[in-house]
From TrEMBL:
<dbReference type="GO" id="GO:0006508">
    <property type="term" value="P:proteolysis"/>
</dbReference>
<dbReference type="InterPro" id="IPR003653">
    <property type="entry name" value="Peptidase_C48_C"/>
</dbReference>
<keyword id="KW-0378">Hydrolase</keyword>
<dbReference type="Pfam" id="PF02902">
    <property type="entry name" value="Peptidase_C48"/>
</dbReference>
<feature type="domain" description="Ubiquitin-like protease family profile">
    <location>
        <begin position="248"/>
        <end position="441"/>
    </location>
</feature>
<protein>
    <recommendedName>
        <fullName>Ubiquitin-like protease family profile domain-containing protein</fullName>
    </recommendedName>
</protein>
<keyword id="KW-0645">Protease</keyword>
<dbReference type="InterPro" id="IPR038765">
    <property type="entry name" value="Papain-like_cys_pep_sf"/>
</dbReference>
<comment type="similarity">
    <text>Belongs to the peptidase C48 family.</text>
</comment>
<dbReference type="GO" id="GO:0008234">
    <property type="term" value="F:cysteine-type peptidase activity"/>
</dbReference>
<dbReference type="GO" id="GO:0019783">
    <property type="term" value="F:ubiquitin-like protein peptidase activity"/>
</dbReference>
Length: 482
């Protein structure tokens, strides 16, 4: 109990501190060791609970130190002597290698105990994954897909390896007073971990090589690609509910638009724009409704907006940006905008703050050739380009930059209303071309045509059947159906 002279005065105890007895239970709770010399017979019966309480009062580091001082040496073949506290870690490493061996039989613990180079690990992988055939037959597609799945599974298993080295270092620090030097088993452990990290790199390279080879063959054989695609769609049609609910906003009806000769719908476009831009980490991907709401006068995206833009328009853009940027881990520096014209044609626009460019990508040959022959202000995309310049100023302010494109002929930005692209050979592949424009922008920062594209599996083709099959595969894989 405490008493004060008046409100606001310093508080003082009612009795002197030295005159207040500390209750016995409080002594026991705060310092149980003080009771040992004068412990009564009744208190001795509670010594076990007192020791337990004392252990809990110890700091975690102190408890860990006591625990690790009790470790012993145990034999763990083929590593040899290890400390008993590290045996779960060594066992986890052995299990990880066994899981890898289920998919890559040439990999074993014995082969990983000595330092290995990338060439040696690659040679081991080649014994399990020989080079594929160069022609598309009935079994090549399925065989390649099986190999890719196996390699993806190994990648998942190896993802935990990055934690092994730091965990072993933690145990070694705890035994600093017990071990003057690292045990030979610890060195072997680190060699195996390093080899597994090399294995992970080699597996990714092998998977990418198999995928690139398969995709190139699919592009070179559009008839077979269309046949495989029809089989995939038919399997889904036999069980319409298999795809429903597996991917956000995507149904079987949406996925069917990837079939040969079909026009891609909004949900398929939105799915890949969001997924690929999110994976890029630096490109803001707007959905197909942004253009008709912000850039054009009507939902059909025919006539670009004219006149003055208000603060309300800018606030609307800010809300779209905030929503689209939620899925990005880093600050965005470019924007991709798909445009759906009258539900009959797809094309796109890109604003890139890093290279200071505004480009419009349209795969229709006649439109591009015809517009290039007209005066600049009479071209189809001239008014849209003016709107995109306003949008660039708004996006610049959101990024904290002052682009100042309005009434600024001295600006170092480049604006191209008809960037040179591969032209579509039919009336229905525009959506696939547009998505492939995005692939090039994310991969190369610009669309590359013909020999400019060094990656053969990323080149454009007159028939985009192989690209359609790859898009369908990706969606079905994401849905867990392949």
């Amino acid at each position: 109990m405490w008493r004060s002279k008046s409100y606001g005065a310093c508080l003082r105890p009612l009795f002197p501190v030295e005159a207040r007895p500390l209750p016995y239970p409080l002594i026991q709770m705060f310092n149980p060791l003080l009771l040992h010399p004068i412990m009564s017979t009744a208190a001795a019966s509670n010594s076990s609970s007192t020791r337990t309480m004392y252990k809990h009062l110890l700091s975690p580091s102190r408890r860990q130190a006591i625990t690790h001082k009790r470790c012993t040496f145990v034999d763990f073949p083929p590593f040899g002597l290890i400390l008993s506290c590290t045996s779960p870690l060594f066992l986890q490493l052995s299990n990880t290698i066994n899981q890898c061996s289920a998919f890559v039989p040439s990999i074993s613990l014995q082969r990983l105990l000595r330092p290995a180079s990338i060439c040696r690990i690659t040679a081991l992988l080649n014994t399990d994954f020989s080079p594929p055939a160069l022609s598309l037959d009935d079994g090549l597609y399925l065989e390649s897909e099986t190999r890719i799945k196996r390699l993806c599974e190994v990648t998942k298993v190896l993802s935990k390896v990055v934690q092994f080295q730091s965990t072993l270092a933690f145990y070694q620090r705890k035994h600093g007073d017990l071990l003057s030097d690292a045990l030979p088993s610890d060195n072997s452990f680190l060699i195996v971990v390093q080899n597994l990290e090399i294995l992970s790199q080699c597996i990714n390279s092998k998977r990418e090589a198999i995928e690139a080879s398969l995709w190139t063959i699919l592009d070179d054989h559009p008839e077979q690609s269309e046949s495989i695609l029809r089989i995939l769609v038919k399997k889904l049609s036999d069980d319409p509910n298999s795809i429903n609910g597996k991917l956000p906003f995507v149904t079987l009806a949406n996925l069917r638009t990837l079939s040969a000769g079909r026009w891609l719908d909004d949900e398929v476009v939105n799915y890949f724009v969001k997924k690929w831009c999110t994976q890029s980490g630096s490109t803001l991907g707007f959905n197909t409704f942004f253009a008709c709401k912000i850039l054009f006068q009507e939902p059909e995206c025919i006539n670009a907006r004219e006149g003055f833009f208000t603060d309300a328009d800018e606030n609307t853009v800010r809300r779209w940006c905030a929503k689209a940027a939620v899925s990005l881990d880093t600050e965005w520096d470019s924007v991709f905008i798909p445009i759906n014209e009258s539900s009959t044609h797809w094309y796109s626009a890109r604003i890139d703050f890093r290279v200071k460019r505004i480009d419009i990508f349209d795969s229709l040959r006649d439109r591009c050739i015809e517009n290039r022959q007209k005066p600049l202000l009479e071209r189809k995309n001239s008014k849209l380009m003016l709107v995109l310049m306003w949008l660039t100023d708004v996006l610049g302010r959101i990024r904290g930059e002052d682009t100042m494109l309005k009434n600024n002929p001295e600006s170092d930005w480049v604006c191209d209303p008809h960037y040179k692209v591969h032209f579509q050979a039919n009336s229905y592949d525009c959506g696939v071309h547009m998505l492939w424009h995005l692939r090039h922008l994310l991969e190369f920062r610009q669309v590359r045509v013909g020999a400019q594209c060094s990656s053969g599996h990323l080149r454009f083709n007159d028939s985009m059947a192989g690209k359609r099959l790859r898009l369908a595969q990706e969606m079905l894989t994401d849905a867990g159906l392949l």
